[in-house]
Amino acid sequence: MLATYLIGLREGLEATLVVSILVAFLVKSGRTERLRAVWAGVTAAVALSVLAGWLLSYTGTTLLRDYRDRELFEAVTSIAAVGFVTWMIFWMRRMARGIAGDLRAKLQDALAVGTFAVGVMAFLAVVREGLETSLIFYSAARGAVGAGPLLALTAGVLTAVTIGFLMYATAVRINLSAFFTWTGVLLILVAAGIFKYGVHDLQEAGILPGIGAVAFRLGGVLDPSTWYAALLAGMFNLTPEPTVLEMVAWVAYALPVLVLFLRPQRSAVPA
């Protein structure tokens, strides 16, 4: 639940910031009549994202009846989710400072074209976050019982919307650079667990070897019924008997990505 809450908070805040930038620009420029187009685009993006999440779940649980096909599908979605997470955190790290100016420039161009273009721009700006959220949530919440992960994701999104509204409507400010850095580190660890899960699915499907080569056994040390075991399992996909290849995959992803992400950014040297 903590992992899915973090996903909802991070992706939700990115989408909320995008929408607040668009709304603020239209309000300040006296183009409030175009706000309906923005909200129509946002609504369509949210609807498509929910549909995508449902399709992923329906495919994995209903359409694919063969065990190996399901494992392969889940492996592919897990690896794709890891790719999206990695791209997203590095993209936001690079673009955070200039995203507002870039969005305003694109919105100015859309205003020159017409109302429909404004709606399309708002749709495209939000749908990317929504589709990423659907894929990452599906990969992170597989195997969970009950509605807990979905409620946690919803709580994360609602928290992000609340933060975005407070930042837009009041003088409340948060250090977005620190926020995206800390959530980026946590998401890298979540992605490492998803990648580990994907490797395990490939082993279950018979694509990769080593399904019986256990790296270590935590059954006598880590009681799965305790809250901290559930936290470790949900956040980092730490299982009682991971295979050697799973742990190699976890380390091979987490360590280099963390080093690259935490490495200080070089400032551009003026010519």
UniProtKB/TrEMBL annotation:
User: What InterPro entries does this protein's entry cite?
Assistant: FTR1/Fip1/EfeU (IPR004923)
Record keyword Transmembrane helix present:
yes
Q: Name one GO cellular component term.
A: high-affinity iron permease complex
List all membrane-crossing ranges.
Answer: 39-60, 72-90, 110-127, 147-169, 176-195, 244-262
Q: Where does this polypeptide localize?
A: Membrane
- GO MF, any single term: ferrous iron transmembrane transporter activity
Statement: the UniProt record of this protein carries the keyword Hydrolase: no
Which keywords does this chain's UniProt record carry? Membrane, Transmembrane, Transmembrane helix
- Major location (coarse): membrane
User: Topology versus the membrane, per the UniProt entry?
Assistant: Multi-pass membrane protein
Q: Which family does it belong to?
A: Belongs to the oxidase-dependent Fe transporter (OFeT) (TC 9.A.10.1) family.
- In Swiss-Prot or TrEMBL terms, this protein is called Iron transporter
Taxonomic classification, please? Bacteria, Bacillati, Actinomycetota, Actinomycetes, Micromonosporales
